[in-house]
Amino acid sequence: MTEARYIMQPGLATLLGFVAGCSAPGGPFVAGPALPSDEPARALVATDDGLAIAFHLSSRVALWRRDGSRAEVEVGLGPRRIARVDRGSTELVTANASGASLSTLRGMVVATTTALDAPPIALAAGDLDGDDDDELAILTGIVASAIEVQIHGLGPPLRRALPGASAVAIGDVDGDGRSDIVAVLESEATAVVLSNASGFEAETRVAVCPTPSAVAVRRGVIAVACRSGGVDLVEGSSVRHLEGGRASYDVLLDDLDGDGALDVAAVDRLGDAVFVWLDVTQDQAPWVYPVGRGPVALERFDFDGDGARDLVVLAYESRTVDVLLDTGAKR
Ligand SMILES: [Ca+2]
Ligand SMILES: [Ca+2]
Ligand SMILES: [Ca+2]
Predict the structure, then answer these.
(1) What's the 219 CA to ligand 2 centre distance in angstroms?
(2) Does residue 24 carry a pLDDT above 90?
(3) Computed from CA positions of residues 92, 302, 218, 317, in that sequence, does the dihedral angle turn out positive or negative?
(4) N or C terminus: fewer CB in 10 A for the chain?
(5) Closest listed residue to residue 183, CA positions, set 173, 202, 170
(6) For ion ligand 3, residues whose CB falls within 5 Å
(7) How far away, in angstroms, is 301 Cα from ligand 3 center?
(8) Residue 189 backbone phi and psi in degrees, to 5
(9) How far apart are CA 110 and CA 128, in angstroms?
(10) How many other C-beta atoms can be found within 10 angstroms of the C-beta atom of residue 195?
(11) Distance CA 120, CA 148 (A)
(12) Which one of the ligands is nearest to 326 CA?
């Protein structure tokens, strides 16, 4: 096992705000500001001009624009997840757990409200039929045994039973150029792929860490955030565990440092940190960045407008949005 590289003492980044004085070589990111979110939130998503945050307690979405201005809109009750949906124009969709509904926002106005027959747990957006317009995969259910995925946007909603599912993602798993649906089953420590080629009928199951909490897909790789710590990487039937942290609550797969190789980032809710593993094909120690207390979600967003996307982290307990600025450093 490789040893993690800690950049700074936990908490210091938050104290300093901008950490110009932090001289340690820091990998692809450096601590930026911690912005107060006033009330706790669980979900955020980047849009073209800002960062949209869903506040489940007050049932609203706030858009923090890069120019510093802010806009707010009231949505259905208890928005716990938010997704960016591209259908000609960009829409935001919230999954309203208490209201058992979806709110679709266009330009920070609620355009439609869609009633669901059970509360939504998670949602993912992606183009499933190759027409460049995004469809939605929504996990719904009250009890674990009754959870299903509803696929909206391909005519009448398709429904597939997925008992115990806790998170869902859309991406091409099998490399046929069409996006598949991936879910993780918390109760069974399993990742399930519903393949597009089968009309989302055929299921492929892979055993992963216990209590998987989030999932991401890119370039045929599935990343599973493990609530027991670290990330499982699934390629085909092989699973590799990336060790780091005590409780991963969200995970992101992307080329974070611009060298072409796929990287992984995860938030450690108990360790108040973000772990970044560069190049998933290598077995390298993660970079570790302290953030606010109780980080639950992360996203890529060009916070400072320099053209390079930074990492933004939603910290639940400290009620902050913590920014890790891209340094442009490749290794
Ligand atoms: Ca489509
Ligand atoms: Ca990379
Ligand atoms: Ca940037």
Answers:
(1) 13
(2) no
(3) negative
(4) N
(5) 170
(6) 302, 304, 306, 308, 310, 326
(7) 7
(8) 50, 55
(9) 24
(10) 18
(11) 10
(12) 3
